[in-house]
Amino acid sequence: MIPRRSLRLLVPCWWITLLLQAADPIPINQEESKVPAYTLPDPLRSTSGEPVRTAAAWSGMRRPEVLELFRNHVYGRTPESLDRSGSILVSDHPQARGGRATRQRIRVPLTRGSDGPAIDLLVYLPNARSGKVPVFLGLNFDGNHTVTLEPDIPLTPGWVPNRPQWGITNHAATEASRGSAAGRWPIDRLLERGYGLATVYCGEIEPDHPEGWRTGLRGAVISPELQAPAADAWGAIGAWAWGLTRALDALETHPRVDGRRVAVIGHSRLGKTALWAGAQDSRFALVISNESGEGGAALARRDFGETLLRINTSFPHWFCSRFKAYNHDIAALPVDQHELIALIAPRPVYVASATEDLWADPKGEFLGALGAEPVYALFGKKGLGTSTPPPSDRPIGDSIGYHNRSGKHDITTYDWERYMDFADRHLGTRGADTH
Ligand code: GTR
User: Do 79 and 124 have their domain in common?
Assistant: First the structure.
């Protein structure tokens, strides 16, 4: 008899993949020729059928309507009376990173009182620049200690996703995970190009699992016993986006940060979050979606890669519960993701894909960006400049930027360099406040 262990070795990997696919009842299409036809909602036509012909009509009438549709049907409603108490400087290191950076940790409370959730905003500012600097702000996946090898950044104390490769098997951060995401955060390069960086661990706002709301911001502002929230109650993405708004509150009052030049950036689920934060909070001067895919920049109606049913099944806590009503009827969803991008107009927005990241649907992300163009045009702003996806590694666009990096689902130095080029054009990198 063959022992079970050897039998496992005999079964080729692709069999296992096939078996897993057979067990997965949710079909996923990754063939361009099999994408069915679809019709997108028109951003320039109001729900009552009125055409939107001017920037004033967009801003005064249609934009509030589209924003409300996203609250009602997709991400849920951010409560109106959330606490916005001031932030506290926790530590200040004026000569970090070999003297290149001033590094600070700023505690930003999310609720009144000391017991509620608070974020630990990690900020790097370039010492070589004087005056107020532009800053990239983004959430990280696993804790601030993962974005850098610096030993004096405390391990995040709360729940983290298990990562056996870093010895994390019981949701507690380990010393081994220090710097594990440093490749995704080119801090020195940002400093060199005149930018500051601010980052927050998303799990401090709300741990990323279906029960995470209980110990996160959502649980702190609604009764934790409440089992059946309203169909338009906010999901985890809404809570994370609020964390970004609170981080911006702290940056706006920072003496060395130019609050009018803060770019919000996010990768994947945190790219969906950056878009939603940028759509709601027009103080964000520039918005960057790195491979945000389904529920981010990719068109929901285009059946390629991850689907609405798949995302709502795997991550039931990300969106509002009404979003699930469209799992099997996407055509009935009153918005699509190009209109989320349009909510950012006329501010510059950059959407990026990766060639091997079919799950996120690179073409669907391109088309999401393209679909926002008519709204940018109302403001006299140029978008992508083409209706055909560009070849890989060729950045395009004016107020709407796009590239499709060759390679896998990730955020790399290539991506960051393009975002900094884009920010140079739209925000300017001069150290002094230029406004
Ligand atoms: C995947 C999810 C995507 C994307 C990604 C990520 O599992 O299906 O929508 O959000 O996770 O965040 O890395």
Answer: yes
